[in-house]
Give the backbone structure.
Amino acid sequence: MRNKEIAEQFYLIAQLLSLTDENPFKVRAYEKAAQVIESLPEPIEEISKDFQKLSSIPGVGKSIAEKVIEYLNTGRIQRLEELRSKFPEGIFEMLKIPGLGPKRVKLLFEKLGISNVDTLKEYAQKGMLKGLPGFGEKVEKNILEGIQMLSVSEQRLLLFDAIKVVEEILGELKNKDIINIDPCGSLRRKKETVGDIDILCCVKEGKEKQTIEKFTKLSMVKKVSACGETKGSIITHSNLQVDLRVVPKEVYGAALQYFTGSKQHNIHLREIANKKNLTISEYGVFKIGKKDKPICGETEQEVYEILGLQYIEPELREDRGEIELAQQNKLPKLIDIKDIKGDTHIHSHYSDGANSIKEISEYAYKLGYEWIIICDHSQSLKVAGGLEIKTLYKKIEEIKNLNKTSKVRILCGQEVDILSDGRLDYPDEVLKELDFVIAAIHTGFKQSEEQITERIMKAIDNKYVHSISHPTGRLLNKRSPYKVNISKVIEYAAKNGVMLEINAFPERLDLDDIHTKYAKEHKVLLSIGTDAHHISQMEYMILGVYVARRGWLEKENVINSFSYKELIKYLNKRR
Ligand SMILES: [Zn+2]
Ligand SMILES: [Zn+2]
């Protein structure tokens, strides 16, 4: 699927246009097209086979459609090349710095002649940007932070995007010759971001070379960096490195264990092996001194068993105490997607969501849910369609009516802003009419750690608040968390019986795995919310479950595993 890659071309056109003095509506039109293409569920290269279909997608139109086809056929867009030729190469890197934006880039270029990231960094470090209108000390600091983010995000891919790439590869590669095939590394451990992608497989005898060759000819391949007898390495159109290794069936489990990592986990396992007079590697488990024939390694289970360990799920393999528990047969029984009975955070078209509550409830039924909670934005968040009180009462009424026929139970919730002084965005007499209240920070990110922590604690004090949404506010690859003493928040939530959210939106995954585990240790209940703004995004639930698993959660630690009856009982207890 090349949607993201193509969307990026249009984002770049929009940004370059805004560096020239182009009509803002045109800029907006390219941005819109990029957004639409990025979120298309079907591969754009498929849709493009039918020009009529492509050009009739809202937000695309004839002129954009022609450029999509041009790009697919030639690998370039004439319009983009024209724009590119007007600016030095380094400007494009500068445009990627999170939070900087085309307007400031333009100013930097025109007034100071800064045309690449290195020069910009130097200027910012020396405090030489302050003279420009709108460039105070704070902006300089933000630029430096942004540059640092840039170098990190160049290397790591969001888990969700990585999963999609792998699904596509496996879909194209699978055939009767392949016996087993699995992604390994941090992707298999479901880490929030992934570097390179490593895939392992075993095939029928004699089909090794053929499998590697097929891999190097996948449609996503831009460049083949290696194509050997048992290993192939490619770069995709979106500049991602993917390796495929073929290993013998007899040691597939040992290799899978080895390449899944983490490094720390594997180092710890090797120590245990040595004490038992064994060595383990990607080639199997051996008795020390007998390198000729492995004693086991066909499955991962065998490897753990021979070391005297309970099988350890990949999400736990970080050497955070899992090995010690596996020795005592005391590992947690991790929550599974099958345990999920509802979603606590879905936006409807009452605020900035794309679907009606009825559509959401029908989709939830398809997902097998028992209940859902519709949480829209509150009144002061005007940019996101926050609900005024009288509209909120309409929503409550609509949900009451829908529940007469709906196959899933619909709860009326709201994602209520925590204002800059810690007050909530609705008065108590309104909050008490809601089935579920999540409180969230969407403004005032620049406050001190003390202020933000106080704000959240004040929200926790309100007896109508059930959960705190995306507690640290981070956006992966884009924005660091706001300054918050999150362990203090967790301890305070525990004391007051308030939940914390694992926001499952791909770039949030907030709380993260580490603090999720900390919350569990403090007996805080977690709520997993997809923060879906379109029904298709309700599928992000799996990402929330991955965070929960990496945070050692069992189903009783997560409210989404509660039946409707248990849920209501729990929510009422708080008040
Ligand atoms: Zn939010
Ligand atoms: Zn939300």
Q: What stands out?
A: The chain has four domains: 3-153, 157-242, 251-327, 337-573. The pocket of zinc ion (ligand 2) is lined by residues 345, 347, 415, 531 (CB under 6 Å).
